[in-house]
Design goal:
The complex is a heterodimer of chains A (807) and B (317). Chain A has 807 residues and is of the alpha/beta class. Chain A is 28% helix and 27% strand. Chain B is 43% helix and 20% strand. Classes of the chains: A alpha/beta (807), B alpha/beta (317). Chains A and B meet through β2, α4 and α20 of A and α7, β9, β10 and α11 of B. β2 of chain A pairs parallel with β9 of chain B, so a sheet runs across the interface.
């Protein structure tokens, strides 16, 4: 019985309660002492005193006992109030309502990709976390307020005005606030998402709510509960917790669910073509597309990864299929079997996907091809299925359009091939003149006058090869710069004329380059008279990846006799495609010969287009490059790789779940974006012309514009979100200790945190108020019983009342 | 520095005087200050002197001419010899021994004795025959009835003979205590009074009001005149006690432990009821009543006495 009472009623300072009870005897002792020590007073009018006393003896005794009882009660209750009493185990609602102790419970639910992992009992981690959350909500009172956050990207704040709660909760980041019933309803409708958790942002949002003026200042009434599987990439434990979140400990009590045990997961880490722009047609092709007739071949690279505790030998099946704009398969799917070697966690598969029967839009001359790759791990232990599929988009074009910018006058020396002719031959090696009228050519070449370049003239082109930059005027440079910003390729060739190269200044200024280009060429013939060789030991540039196998042998015969001095700092946007290997004071020095740079647009952001510079002229006196086997593949790969990388399909294939991608100008006429098998998501154009969906794209798959169905977008799962290895519990504890005072949540009885902390109804303040009321009551009693000083008013009126009463 | 009337009649001043004789003379001198020659004032056609008006004086003797000239009220006094019988009854019961001013030791009996001596002094000087008697349960001491010049000395001796009565009973509860018995007093007094007399009763009247009423009725029917000086202590009228107190009755009424504040109002109602009842009874028979507080000046009671005496003489006594 005593233990039961002890569980129900708790005292923080029992000694004070005992002292209060002891102090309650003080008035009794004083009363007794007072009775013993009456001051003797001789009194003449004793008969009247006796008369009054006998008449009111009963009332006087009652008043004395009443006052004594009140005074004893004051001391006893005061001691009890100061001892910190609490009443435990009350019905939550009743206790909360009675004591007016409204609590704020902030629940952060991990709905990231790993929460889709299926546990041994067939339930997903998300189901288990959601059930835990529902159990917690069931322990709350009707007066309590609950705020719910979803930790997977994109995270939203607690303000419900930011929240779009529709029927399709999978496509919206629902975070909600209200009473436990409404939050429970929302929680039951939630589904896990395909992105990774962003706990730092989520907790920052939680902290905003805790700091809100309407939030209780009592830490015992504010709960932050994080329900997560604590998968491998949910937190970067190597980084210290943000300083701003450390203040959270002062305003709340924090509870975490324990990390889930690690499970296995196989995933497609990446699926991408070698280039996002391929050329289709009757004739053969170079690079990533091969085949004859209307059959194309698309070179694809697949990367596989597995998160398993034991990297044992196993087999995985991969299937890739291409689909046209109607969703129909174009060509047979390609299937590959990969055998995981023991200890192997990542693998790369290169394959060629045949594209057959793809119809090119005759109006636009291109078609968007969607490619879907699927992984079948072949094992039941693959706990997440969502990251086994990936999509990307490839643009299939009939041909490229390239302009050679040159002086239009024909040179008189018929014996020497001009640079323009060299380029013509390189761009269409199987063709003969007249080049501009070639109907079946993969690369359609036109010639532009160097002195007459305009934006309008470059509008329909993919690339501009400038052989005479010295003849380009300011308008031409501006047009070329704008052309590159919009995704075009501008290739500058050094002219062979012996003039001071003042055009290099225009080049640097209009393209915003950090290059240093000399004003006069340097003679590199040296004593041997053979010129300088290209460096063959350097890494193969990314743009030339398809030539990697033959790259050194292609470079080896090339000699350079004259060259403009060129200095290009190492930067991610700068690429050395060909490098000279010179000897200076006995040391080997590498100098760039052909460089490529992704240029910046007007806003300073890195754009999609490129500018390239060959620091030597296409002239036999300068270099033998045009006559060597390197020249044709170099021209084509530079052209196609650059245009492939800058192709919109590359960007449209790199969207991950949870992103709100900024779409290019071509999407400005689209009204909405539609997921395959999903609903419409409206598009909104911001003031600066950027088109973006109004909500993040949550589901993976292929999206198309509406009504322009040819515009496509591939959204893929963030592969790093699929790390199913659980965080180390100890490491997580240490990381969290720098963030807040927290405790693990008891999975068996999660509601006990409320019983321990907030379901204890504090009686301290109510009792102190009761003490105050008793003090006031004692004062009133004492005055009413005439034990205190009588006011003058009372003195004045009492006789009158007596006279009136006597009549 | 000459003293004013107020200072002569101030209770502080009177209490400071150890001798009752001196106190009586002080009272009379205070009352008579401003006179040019010795008193013997009475009702006659021969003007004796002027004296300042005191509340209670008969307005018929106001000198309006002086008032018009000086804007001050003066009474005209005339010399006349009388043969008034004055009986002064002084309560010497235990309750009269109470005095709240323990520093000055100014008790109710002290005030009563001072009044009695002053009245006797005035009467003797005006050739009135005077007799002073002390009583508690009964008459315990008395002087003869005389207007001899040295008679006042015997009056003072009788009054001074019982000055320590109450104090002894306070300190020792076993001492015999004298209790007021008005019924018996009036029995004895009326039996002795054979001529119409002016009776002055100085007492706290701590007895049954029925006894007082019966006694006054008997005096009234025998055509005696009466002035009641209801002598009470200031503390008895205000009950200023706060600390828990053991009250000890001065007339063998026992002891009572009490929180004074708890009973204050009820007691005050009772004491007020007592003196109002005494006043009502006294005035019902046409007698004069004056409540005398030990903290009050004594001028008013003496003026009241003088006025009553003059009225009695004026009626043909």
């Amino acid at each position: 019985m005593v233990s039961v009472i002890g569980q129900v009623v708790g005292l923080e300072l029992p000694a004070l309660a005992a002292a209060g009870v002891a102090a309650a005897s003080v008035p009794i002792v004083i009363h007794l002492l007072t009775r013993l020590h009456h001051r003797p007073q001789a009194w003449g009018a004793m008969r009247f005193l006796w008369q009054a006393y006998r008449r009111h003896r009963s009332r006087l005794r009652l008043e004395q006992w009443l006052l004594l009882a009140v005074r004893c009660l004051i001391l006893a209750v005061l001691g009890l109030a100061l001892s910190g009493p609490g009443l435990r185990g009350c019905a939550t609602g009743a206790a909360g309502g009675w004591s007016n102790q409204i609590r704020l419970v902030c629940i952060v639910l991990d709905d990231s990709l790993t929460s889709q992992a299926v546990d041994f009992d067939g339930r997903t981690r998300f189901d288990q976390l959601r059930e835990l959350g529902l159990n917690l909500l069931g322990e709350l009172g009707s007066a309590d307020r609950v705020a719910l956050w979803r930790s997977a990207r994109p995270t939203l704040g607690h303000d419900t005005s930011q929240i779009s709660v529709g029927s399709d909760t999978d496509s919206t980041a629902v975070s909600t606030m209200g009473d436990r019933h409404s939050v429970a309803r929302d929680l039951k409708r939630m589904r896990p998402r395909h992105s990774r958790s962003d706990f730092v942002s989520t907790l920052a949002s939680v902290m905003d709510l805790i700091d809100h003026p309407s939030t209780p200042r009592d830490p015992d009434r504010v709960f932050v509960i994080v329900l997560s599987d604590w998968a491998g990439d949910s937190l970067d434990l190597q980084q210290p917790p943000p300083y701003e979140l450390a203040a959270m400990a002062k305003g709340c009590r924090m509870f975490l669910s324990r990390p889930f045990p690690s499970t296995d997961n196989f995933q497609l880490l990446a699926a991408s073509p070698h280039r996002y722009l391929i050329l289709g047609g009757r004739e053969g092709d170079l690079g990533g597309v091969s085949g004859g007739g209307d059959t194309l071949g698309l070179s694809i690279e697949l990367k596989l990864r597995r998160f398993v505790a034991e990297l044992a030998e196993s087999t995985a099946h991969v299937e890739v299929v291409g689909r046209d704009h109607k969703g129909q398969a174009v060509g047979e799917p390609v299937k590959r079997i990969h055998r995981w070697a023991p200890g192997q966690s990542q693998a790369t598969i290169n394959l060629e996907l045949p594209i057959k029967g793809l119809e090119i839009d005759s109006a636009t001359g291109h078609r968007m091809l969607t490619v879907e790759a699927n992984l079948d791990a072949g094992l039941d232990s693959d706990t997440i299925a969502a990251d086994n599929r990936r999509w990307f988009i490839v643009e299939v074009r009939r041909h490229l359009r390239v302009a050679i910018v040159d002086r239009l006058a024909i040179d008189g020396d018929d014996d020497q091939i001009t640079p323009r002719q060299w380029l013509h031959m390189a761009l269409n090696p199987s063709r003969v003149e007249p080049m501009d009228t070639m109907s079946g050519a993969r690369v359609k070449v036109t010639t532009l006058a160097a002195s007459g370049i305009t934006k309008q003239g470059l509008k329909t082109l993919d690339a501009a090869m400038v052989l005479r930059p010295d003849l380009v005027d300011q308008t031409g440079w501006q047009a070329l710069s704008r052309f590159a910003q919009l995704g075009g390729l501008v290739w500058i060739f050094v002219p062979a004329e012996d003039t001071v190269a003042v055009w290099t200044t225009n080049l640097r200024q209009h393209f915003g380059l950090d290059w240093q280009v000399g004003l006069e060429p340097n003679d590199l013939t040296g004593s041997s008279g053979h010129g300088v060789m290209l460096a063959t030991e350097t890494a193969v540039p990314e743009l030339m990846a398809i030539l990697a196998a033959d790259w050194p042998s292609l470079l080896k015969p090339v000699r350079v006799m004259r060259r403009f001095e060129l200095s290009v700092p190492a930067a991610p946007s700068n690429t050395w495609l060909a490098t000279l290997e010179t000897q200076t004071r006995g040391e080997q020095v590498h100098k760039p010969l052909l460089v490529s740079t992704v240029i910046r647009d007007e806003s300073g952001e890195v754009g999609r287009g490129r500018v390239m510079l060959l620091a030597t002229a296409l002239d036999p006196k300068w270099t033998n490059l045009p006559t060597k086997p390197l020249f044709v593949p170099l021209v084509h790969e530079s052209l196609r790789s650059s245009l492939g990388q800058s192709n919109p399909a590359a960007q449209l294939s790199q969207v991950t779940c949870g992103d709100r991608p900024a779409l290019m100008q071509s999407w400005s006429l689209a009204q909405s974006i539609v997921a395959t098998g999903g609903g419409d998501i409206p598009l909104r154009q911001s003031g600066d012309g950027v088109v973006a969906p109004v909500v993040p794209l949550a589901a993976p798959g292929i999206y198309h514009a509406k009504p322009q169905t040819d515009l496509r977008l591939a959204v893929n799962v963030d592969p790093d979100a699929g790390n199913t290895f659980g965080l180390d519990e100890t490491a997580l504890s240490q990381w969290m200790s720098g963030l807040a005072q927290w405790q693990w949540l008891n999975d068996e009885q999660p509601g006990e945190i409320f019983l321990r902390q907030s379901l204890v109804v504090r009686w301290g303040w109510p009792l102190l108020w009761a003490v105050l009321a008793l003090v006031l009551l004692e004062t009133l009693f004492a005055r009413w019983f005439s034990h205190a000083q009588i006011s003058e008013r009372k003195e004045r009126w009492l006789p009158r009342f007596a006279a009136i009463r006597k009549g | 520095m000459s003293k004013t009337t107020t200072s002569y009649l101030d209770p502080d001043t009177l209490a400071a005087l150890g001798s009752l004789e001196l106190r009586a003379r002080m009272i009379v001198e205070g009352l008579m200050i401003g006179m040019h020659r010795s008193p013997y004032q009475g009702v006659s056609t021969e003007f004796a002197q002027h004296r300042p008006y005191t509340p209670g004086d008969d307005l018929r003797h106001l000198d309006w001419k002086v008032y018009i000239r000086t804007d001050k009220l003066y009474l005209k006094q005339f010399q006349k010899e009388t043969n008034l019988r004055l009986i002064v009854l002084v309560d010497a019961s235990g309750s009269m021994g109470y005095g709240s001013d323990t520093v000055r030791n100014w008790r109710k009996y002290d005030l009563a004795a001072a009044f009695a001596a002053a009245i006797a002094y005035l009467a003797v000087r005006q050739q009135d025959r005077v007799q002073v008697a002390l009583f508690d349960r009964e008459l315990i001491a008395q002087t003869g009835l005389s207007n001899a010049h040295d008679h006042w000395r015997s009056v003072v001796e009788v009054l001074s003979s019982v000055t320590d009565l109450s104090q002894e009973s306070v300190d020792s509860s076993t001492d015999p205590v004298s209790v007021t018995d008005l019924a018996r007093l009036f029995d004895q007094v009326t039996a002795k009074l054979t001529h119409r007399s002016l009776v002055v009763l100085i007492s706290d009247l701590f007895d049954e009001m029925d006894a007082l009423e019966h006694g006054l009725a008997r005096l009234y029917h025998r055509r005696h005149d009466l002035i009641v000086f209801h002598t009470l202590d200031h503390a008895e009228l205000t009950f200023p006690f706060r600390a828990p107190t053991q009250f000890i009755g001065l007339e063998d009424e026992g002891r009572l432990n009490l929180d004074p504040m708890a009973l204050k109002h009820i007691y005050l109602e009772a004491i007020e009821d007592h003196w109002r009842q005494a006043e009502r009874i006294t005035r019902r028979f046409g007698f004069d009543y004056l409540k005398v507080d030990t903290s009050h000046h004594v001028g008013a009671p003496l003026s009241r006495f003088m006025a009553r005496r003059a009225a009695l003489i004026g009626k043909g006594k």
